[in-house]
Amino acid sequence: MSVEYDFDVAIIGAGPAGIAAALTLARAGIETVVFERGQYPGAKNVSGAALYGPVLHKLIPNYWEDDKSFERYLTTKKITLLSESRSVTIDADLRNFNQVPYNGVTVIRPKFDRWLAEKAEEAGAMILPDTMVEDLVWNDKQIIGVKSGEEELKAKLVIIAEGANTLLVEKAKLMKEPKAKHYALAMKETYELSSNIIEERFHLDENEGVSNEILGYTKGIPGGGFYYTNKETVSFGLILNMDVLTKKKLEAPDVLEEFKSHSYIQKLLKDAKMIEYSAHIIPEGGFKHMPKLYGNGVLVAGDAAGMVLNAGLYIEGINFALESGIIAGESAIEIIKSGDYTKKSTKIYKEKLKGSFVYKDLKTFRRASHFLENEHMFTTAPDLVTVLFEKLLRNNGQPRKRIVMTAIWHVLRKTPLFALMKLLIGAVRSL
Ligand SMILES: Cc1cc2nc3c(=O)[nH]c(=O)nc-3n(C[C@H](O)[C@H](O)[C@H](O)COP(=O)(O)OP(=O)(O)OC[C@H]3O[C@@H](n4cnc5c(N)ncnc54)[C@H](O)[C@@H]3O)c2cc1C
User: Fold this and answer.
1) Secondary structure (DSSP) of 361-427
2) β-strand 273-283 against 233-241: which pairing, if any?
3) Among 43, 151, 159, 247, which residue's CB has the most CB atoms within a 10 Å radius?
4) Gap between the Cα atoms of 21 and 106, Å rounded
5) Which atom in ligand 1 lies closest to the alpha carbon of residue 167?
6) Burial, 343: exposed, middle or buried (Cβ in 10 Å; 0-12, 13-18, 19+)?
7) Could you say which DSSP state residue 269 is in?
8) Residue among 19, 24, 37 whose CB has most ligand 1 atoms within 8 A, to mutate
9) Among 66, 276, 136, 279, which residue's Cα sits nearest to residue 192?
10) What per-residue confidence (pLDDT) applies to 427?
11) pLDDT of the residue at 205
C-alpha cells in the first residue's frame, strides 16, 4: 500500500530529546512535527537540574550569551554523607569551571524547555502543545504515524521521546512491561531565596552556582538528595529506589520529611519559602535494561530509551537526552534521504549512538545501577565515615591514638569484613 505522508518526521515529546531531534531535523529542511501533551514544552517536566558538558553548546553555539538559557554556572560541587546528627562534606571549589563552555549549568526545566522549543520553531519545526499521542499507526509491521484522539497523522519516521513513562515504546513493541526495580521515584521542591543569600550562604560570586549530592539518612533506601542553586531559587529533592521503597512499605513523602528534618538540610533551606512541589520517575535500569532503540519506522531517544547515568556522584539525563536527540535527528536525515524507513535503514541510529558518550558512558557504568542498590552504600558507609570523623576530631582530655590505626580499627569493628570487601569490590567493578 502506498502511504500519503503528512510529515517526514513525527516526534513524541517536547523534552530535551524530542526538541534536540526536531531542531537538528528542521535545520536540515526536513518537515518535522512535535507532539507535546503539556500546555507548553516544559510545562510537565521535572528535573533538578544540573545540565553537564558541552552538548548544549553543540546544539546552540554560545548558548550562554542568551541569559534565558540557564540560571548559574556550576563552580562548586559538594558530596555529603549524612547519618543521625552528623554530616561530612567534600567541598570541591573548582574555579576553572567558570569558563565557557561551562562544565555544568543549572536550568529550570519549564523555562529551559520552552526556550529550546522556540529555537526549534524558529528553525521551522512545528510544535503542537496540549496534544497527547495515544497510539501509533501501523501498516503491517511498519509504524507510519501517530494517533491523538480521533486524529491520525502519517509520518515516514516516528521518534519516540516521551520520557520515562514508556507507554508508546511498549506499543511500538520495543520493550516488555517495565519493572519497578529499574526506576527511581524523584521528589523535587523549589524554594525561594534571594540571590544575595544564595551567594552568601554558599560563598559564590555572582552567577556562580553549587550542586550538592547527599547520601544517607533515607531510612536505608538506596537513593540520595540533591540541592542546586538557581538565580533566585534553589532546587532541592530526594531520589529513592522504587522497589526497595515498596518492599519496606515506606511512603516516599515520609522519607522526604525525615530527610528534611536533618540539621544539615535544615541549614541549607533556612528561611527559604517552598513555592513548588513535583514528583517524577527516573529510569535507573542502565545499559542492560535499555529497550530496542530502533524498529520499522521508529527510533527511541532520551529517558524513553533509559538513557540516564546514575553513578552516585551525579545524575545525568538531560545531556544524554540532548545528545541522543541530536543523533536521532542526524540519523533521521539520512533515513529520510534513503527512502527506506525499515529496520535495515533505521539501525544506523544505534550505530551512530555507539560512537557517542551516551552509549559509551552507559556501557562503562553498566554495573553501577546494581551496585547502587546495595543498602550498605546508604547506611553503613555514611555512618562509618561520619562517626569516624567525630571520633578523630573529638578531644576528651585523653592521650590521642594514632589516626590511621584508629580509622582502621573503627572500620573493622563496625563493619563485617565480608560486607566491606563486597562493597569495595563492587565499587571498583562498577564506578
Ligand atoms: C527530580 C529529578 C531531578 C533530575 N535531575 C537531573 C539533573 O540534575 N541533571 C540531569 O541531567 N538530569 C536530571 N534528571 C533526569 C532528566 O530530567 C531526564 O533525564 C530528562 O528530562 C530526559 O529528557 P527527555 O526529553 O528524554 O524526557 P522528558 O524531559 O521527560 O520529556 C518528555 C516529554 O514528552 C512529553 N510526553 C510524554 N508522553 C507524551 C505523549 N504520549 N504525547 C505527547 N507528549 C508526551 C512530556 O510531557 C515531556 O514534555 C532529573 C529527573 C528528575 C525527575
Assistant:
1) HHHHTTTHHHHTT-GGGTTHHHHHHHHHHHHHH---SSPPPPHHHHHHHHHHHHS-HHHHHHHHHHH
2) unpaired
3) 159
4) 22
5) 41
6) middle
7) T
8) 37
9) 276
10) 75
11) 95
Provide DSSP, 124-151. T-EEETT----EEEEETTEEEEEEETTE
Which ranges of 7-82 would DSSP assign to H, the alpha helix? 16-27, 55-59
pLDDT at 312: 65
**Do 169 and 291 touch, CB atoms closer than 8 A?**
yes
Domain 7-71+107-175+291-354 has CATH 3.50.50.60: yes
The full set of domain ranges for the chain reads 7-71+107-175+291-354, 182-283, 375-430
Architecture per CATH, 182-283:
2-Layer Sandwich (3.30)
Contacts of 62 (CB under 8 A, 6+ apart): 100
- Closest approach atom of ligand 1 to CA 282: 53
pLDDT number for residue 252: 97
Q: Which of 34, 47, 51 to mutate to test the pocket of ligand 1 (most atoms within 8 A of CB)?
A: 47
Nearest alpha-carbon partner for 127 in 46, 38, 60: 38
Beta bridge partners of 192: 233, 273
- List residues bridging with 34 in a β-sheet: 11, 127
| Residue indicated by cell numbers 540560571 | 71
Residue 257 clears pLDDT 80, i.e. is over it: yes
Residue 79 has pLDDT above 70, yes or no: yes
Q: Say if strands 151-160 and 142-148 run parallel, antiparallel, or are unpaired.
A: antiparallel
Which residue among 284, 318, 358 is best mutated to probe the pocket of ligand 1, counting the most ligand atoms within 8 A of its Cβ? 318
Q: Specify the pLDDT at position 1.
A: 65
Q: What is the pLDDT of residue 400?
A: 85
pLDDT recorded at residue 48: 75
More confident residue, 97 or 380: 97
Atom 5, ligand 1: which residue's CA is nearest? 48
- The residue type found at 127 is I
Distance (angstroms) between ligand 1 centre and the Cα of 110 equals: 11
| Cα–Cα distance, 132 to 89 (Å, whole number) | 44
**Section 418-422 average pLDDT:** 77
319 burial level (CB within 10 Å; 0-12, 13-18, 19+): buried
Average pLDDT (283-300) is 95
List residues near ligand 1 (CB under 6 A).
Answer: 12-18, 35-38, 44-51, 132-133, 161-163, 168, 186, 188, 237, 280, 282, 302-304, 308, 315-319, 321
Q: How far is the CA of 282 from the centre of ligand 1 (A)?
A: 8
DSSP 150-174: TEEEEEEEEEE---S--HHHHHTTS
